[in-house]
Amino acid sequence: MGVVDGIKQRVGKWVLERSMKDGIDLRKLRFLPDSVTMPLKRDGLDPLPEMAVVRREEPVKKLATMFGKGIWLVSGYDEARAALADGSSYSNDIGQFVSQEGRSDEEQIGGLGMTDPPLHTALRRYLTPEFTMRRLARLEPEIERVVNERLDAMEAAGPEVDLVKEFAFPVPFQVICELLGLPVEDRDRFFELGVARFDLSQGGVGVFGAAAHSREFLIKAVAAQRAEPGDGLIGGLLKEHGDQLDDLTLGGIADGVFLGGYETSASMLALGAYLLAENPDAMKMLREDEVGSAAVDRVVEELLRHLTVVQLAFLRFAKVDVELGGQQIKAGDAVGISLLGANRDPAMAGEHPDSFDPHREPTRHLAFGHGLHRCVGAELARMELRIALRALARRFPDLTVTSPRADLDFRKLSAVYGVEALPVHLYGAHDRVRV
Ligand code: HEM
To answer: What is the domain range of residue 320?
Structure first.
């Protein structure tokens, strides 16, 4: 999906290029206005208090005007849902705003989340058959195997471990490798490239060149399977459409799947485990009920709503003048849709939208987006979360986070919210600080 590349890297580049063209060097501007960064900031797991005020007073709000174009924030649920559903008024194609000249093929801006029909329709048509319940059922035993392997490894390394490093990242990594059909012997190398790509310590964009290297790795994996297609998504697409898809295009599709599914699922597992450790009631529901039960589904859906790790949808650009929530958005304006704001809107979530309530009646949350670009991996993500979090709750029912919330290193200004490390005691060190 490219949420990380997309919003942080590419939009960053886009803004920089546009501003340089206009003779403004944004690199000299050390601070962006608070109104623009507010939707990406949180207080622990909650939006900043300003979000509720903005949503109540102006659910569609113009934050700034840059280069003559409006930049809007949509934070109301109904308005967010309407904008996400309106594929004819908005474009996701950032390429039309950024010159592609001088970029190598690997650098061309693309990916499902940043394309419009008819290209989007064509790309998505390739992918959806790989995500049917029947295809996903193939992955279920593998997810169970990977989860149990990680739980065993944690048990061996415990009683104190970093749950992000030992569980939250390795589980979705192995699941996506299996989904794509990457040979086991190549995975360590790919894992290293993935780590470098999501290492945000280097100014928020990952280690230089890491994105190109992991994309290159996938392009080579496609080339290697062309003669003998494997069982996974790459092999499936080669068998069905090998004559229409060259290595670069198929490598790009695989990379989009990797980007879309890896960091998002890892963040949900880490922050989900954190919330569960604080909520014995939710822990009990997971422990005592089976995967497939209403109780397990309910906990996972409420985790998805409450955490909304994809805080902001891909930027939308108005193709025509359009009215939204009583505001007039002009053609060419950029629209940021706060999925977090929408999912905490009382209009959808009811009276206590900011509380985590595992018994909450199912909601129509937007954690996976809505409309044309709705997450293609949503059912896989759900399956993974249900299996992994339930198994964690059963194996370590007294799991305790050993750092107070204030000491945890939550991501700053990242389109995908997460935590860098989660120190836990597997058997509950009750004498330790819990906040
Ligand atoms: C809990 C985990 C996940 C969350 C919260 C999540 C969230 C999202 C959201 C909000 C969007 C829509 C963005 C927009 O409309 O602007 C999206 C799109 C997408 N996601 Fe996910 N996702 C998750 C897991 C996955 C997985 C496991 C995969 C694949 C293996 C995946 C692949 C994609 C792709 C390819 C798109 C682009 C779809 C399109 O533009 O048509 N995601 N995801």
So the answer is: 3-101+123-425
